[in-house]
């Protein structure tokens, strides 16, 4: 058997759909217990500004998952041209509402609205995205807090597959506050999974290909379809694909296909573990958000 075929055989898909299903099943049981005890069920309030197609899809999945597992959910739709002042007022109302446990404002927001002002307005105890500076600071210090859903979901996936990341070189491509930065912190924590030596790469990184080839773990979170190709990946690497880009495709009924940041066809044959798109990180992000919402409810009530 050729060496490449050997790796093909050894490669394992990190099945986010399966692991997220297990997380949701556990939460469903816990919610049923809350109901049986006459206690309050978790309530997630989500705000969607405008009608960006991808955001509609993501928020739709979040609300549907709440319904599936027995959480209460409220979706607040606001027009694209809403003022920042009015959006902040909606957040203040949710902060004051004792029935609401978790609040999320789907990003990106229209350019006229400051992400920073919006994130800062959310009560940190209801900030189930973990984006508020006080929660981001707590994460940085390794204190209990809400971890941002995508990196949290990836850590749960690594944990489920019992991947020993200790001492590995992790290369995170992308430095967003939503994924790249928190991912780099969690992977470098003194934890399991964790204890990685982390390199964070961005648009100004020199020799990106070379750095990727030295990686034991690659987390691709830059938002460019099929950016990571087989020649950038070391044999046996663990590859986590965070990308979900809509690539126009006139042969499809909906007019596009979803592609990750990783070129699956050339990378999968070289790596030891890989997340598919769809069905990898996406479902884990939602599962982690649900865990955070449950935590918000339990901590408060
Ligand atoms: N946009 C892309 N990812 C996220 C996320 O995790 N939370 C929110 N609120 N918006 C996003």
Oligomeric state: single chain
Tell me which CATH architecture of the largest domain applies here. 3-Layer(aba) Sandwich
Number of domains: 2
- How many helical stretches? 11
Walk across the major sheet and give the strand order.
Answer: 1-11-8-7-5-6
Number of strands: 11
Helix content: 40-55%
Counting helices, strands and paired strands, the structural category is alpha/beta
The gist of it:
With 301 residues, this protein is α/β, with parallel strands linked by helices. It has helices at 3-10, 16-36, 53-69, 84-96, 115-121, 133-140, 149-160, 180-188, 208-213, 264-267, 281-300, and strands at 12-13, 43-49, 72-78, 102-105, 169-173, 197-201, 217-220, 238-241, 245-248, 256-259, 273-274. The chain is globular and about 50 Å long.
List its salient traits.
6-stranded parallel beta sheet, 2 domains, alpha/beta, 3-stranded parallel beta sheet, 301 residues, Rossmann fold, globular, binds guanine, 42% helix, 11 helices
Plain-language structure description:
With 301 residues, this protein is α/β, with parallel strands linked by helices. It is built from 11 helices and 11 strands. The radius of gyration is 20 Å and the shape is globular. Helix 3 (53-69) crosses helix 11 and helix 7 (149-160) crosses helix 8. The protein folds into 2 domains: 39-124, Rossmann fold (3-Layer(aba) Sandwich); 148-282, Rossmann fold (3-Layer(aba) Sandwich), CATH 3.40.50.720. Helix content is 42%, strand content 16%. It has a 6-stranded parallel beta sheet with strand order 1-11-8-7-5-6. Strands 3-2-4 form a 3-stranded parallel beta sheet, with helices on both faces. The protein has a two-stranded antiparallel ribbon with strand order 9-10. Residues 104-107, 129, 149-150, 178 line the site of guanine. Guanine binds next to strand 4 and helix 7.
């Amino acid at each position: 058997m050729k060496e490449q075929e050997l790796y093909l055989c050894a490669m394992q898909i990190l099945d986010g759909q399966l692991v997220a299903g297990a997380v949701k099943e556990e939460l469903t049981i816990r919610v049923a217990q809350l109901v049986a005890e006459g206690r309050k069920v978790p309530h997630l309030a989500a705000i969607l500004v405008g009608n960006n197609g991808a955001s509609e899809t993501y928020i739709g999945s979040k609300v549907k998952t709440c319904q599936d597992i027995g959480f209460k959910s409220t979706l607040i739709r606001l027009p694209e041209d809403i003022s920042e002042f009015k959006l902040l007022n909606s957040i203040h109302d949710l902060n004051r509402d004792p029935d609401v446990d978790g609040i999320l404002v789907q990003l990106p927001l229209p350019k006229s609205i400051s992400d920073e002002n919006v994130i800062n307005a959310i009560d940190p105890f209801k900030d189930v995205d973990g984006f508020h500076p006080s929660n981001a600071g707590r994460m940085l210090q390794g204190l209990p807090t809400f971890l941002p859903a995508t990196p949290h979901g990836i850590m749960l996936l690594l944990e489920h597959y019992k991947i020993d990341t200790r001492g590995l070189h992790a290369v995170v491509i992308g430095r967003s506050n939503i994924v790249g930065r928190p991912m780099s912190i969690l992977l470098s924590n003194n934890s399991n999974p964790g204890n990685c030596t982390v390199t964070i790469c961005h648009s100004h990184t020199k020799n990106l290909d070379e750095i990727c080839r030295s990686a034991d773990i690659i987390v691709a979170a830059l938002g460019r379809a099929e950016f990571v190709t087989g020649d950038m990946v070391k044999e046996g690497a663990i590859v986590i694909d965070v990308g979900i880009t809509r690539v126009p495709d006139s042969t499809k009924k909906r007019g596009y296909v979803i592609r990750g940041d990783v070129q699956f066809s050339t990378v999968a044959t070289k790596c030891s573990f890989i997340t598919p798109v769809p069905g990898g990180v996406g479902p884990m992000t939602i599962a982690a958000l649900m865990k955070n919402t449950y935590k918000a409810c339990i901590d408060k009530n």
